[in-house]
Write a structure and sequence with these properties.
This protein has helices spanning 3-41, 79-99, 149-160, 177-201, 229-232, and strands at 50-61, 65-76, 107-118, 130-143, 164-172, 206-219, 242-254. With 255 residues, the chain is α+β, with helices and mostly antiparallel strands. The strands form 2 sheets. The protein has a 4-stranded antiparallel sheet with strand order 3-4-2-5, with helices on one face.
């Protein structure tokens, strides 16, 4: 055999050795990569154990004030007449409620409007003409003596006459800070009790608080509306109770 044959065998053996080394390196690299991925996925440091629960707290309280919107609505042929009549009626309402015991600072204007009224076009159509003006004037009153609320509202509507309007009558708790604090504490305690139960079931202990998120809601007592003195006299005013509800979502670490 010549020198060329010897060289071909040497070259073939070298190529085979290189391929073997390359395959071995790839296998080792794949094993190393797979091992690293397995460790990262099971790391407890990246995914700490925790429990998240929702607690609810509910507290009831008795309203101590009543709010009501009392106003007038009049229609007159001209602007000055509509405004003057509305002003006169609402001033009579203000005088009536303050004479009945409502403090002046508990009466405030909430709405004053003036809009044109249009006559319906005739059979031939055409542009609608202004037939008059509608004026409204509304005040919101706060009644603190609830035992007199019915009589005060009755006086207000009677003072406004047929132009009187009454709406948005509702009881409220003027200072509900203590109710909110009690409902918040009740919600957190409820959440903690639930979390401790889950921790016991999982045979672990409750750690530090991680996050706290809360929502609150009130349930004011709805009141009917009336637009005349005759209707108002038939309305019983019962304060009832109001409910303050807190929902809190808390996450604890598990040790």
């Amino acid at each position: 055999m010549g020198d060329d044959g010897v060289m071909r065998r040497v070259s073939s053996a070298a190529d085979s050795k290189r391929h073997t080394i390359t395959r071995s390196a790839l296998v080792a690299f794949a094993a190393l990569t797979l091992g690293a991925g397995t460790v990262a996925c099971s790391s407890s440091n990246d995914n700490p154990r925790e429990v998240t629960v929702v607690g609810t707290g509910e507290v009831r309280g008795a309203p101590d004030i009543l709010n009501a919107d009392v106003g007038v609505e009049v229609i007159a042929p001209d602007v000055s007449g509509a405004v003057s009549e509305a002003n006169a009626h609402v001033q009579a309402i203000i005088d009536a409620v303050t004479a009945a015991g409502v403090a002046r600072e508990d009466v405030r204007t909430t709405e004053v409007t003036l809009q044109p009224e249009y006559a319906m076009p005739g059979a031939g159509g055409g542009t609608r003409a202004v037939s008059g003006y509608r004026a409204t004037n509304t005040v919101r009153i706060t009644i603190r003596e609830l035992g007199s609320a019915s009589e005060i509202l009755d006086d207000a509507v009677r003072a406004g006459g047929d132009a009187a309007r009454l709406g948005n009558v509702s009881f409220a708790i003027e200072d509900d800070s203590q109710l909110l604090a009690d409902a918040r504490a009740s919600a957190f305690n409820d959440a903690k009790t639930r979390a401790e139960q889950y921790a016991d079931l999982a045979d672990v202990s409750l750690g530090d608080v991680i996050t706290i998120n809360e929502t609150s809601s009130g349930s004011p007592s709805p009141m009917p509306r009336a637009s005349s003195a005759d209707e108002l006299s038939a309305i019983p005013l019962e304060p009832g109770t109001q409910t303050v509800t807190f929902n809190v979502t808390v996450s604890w670490a598990l040790d």
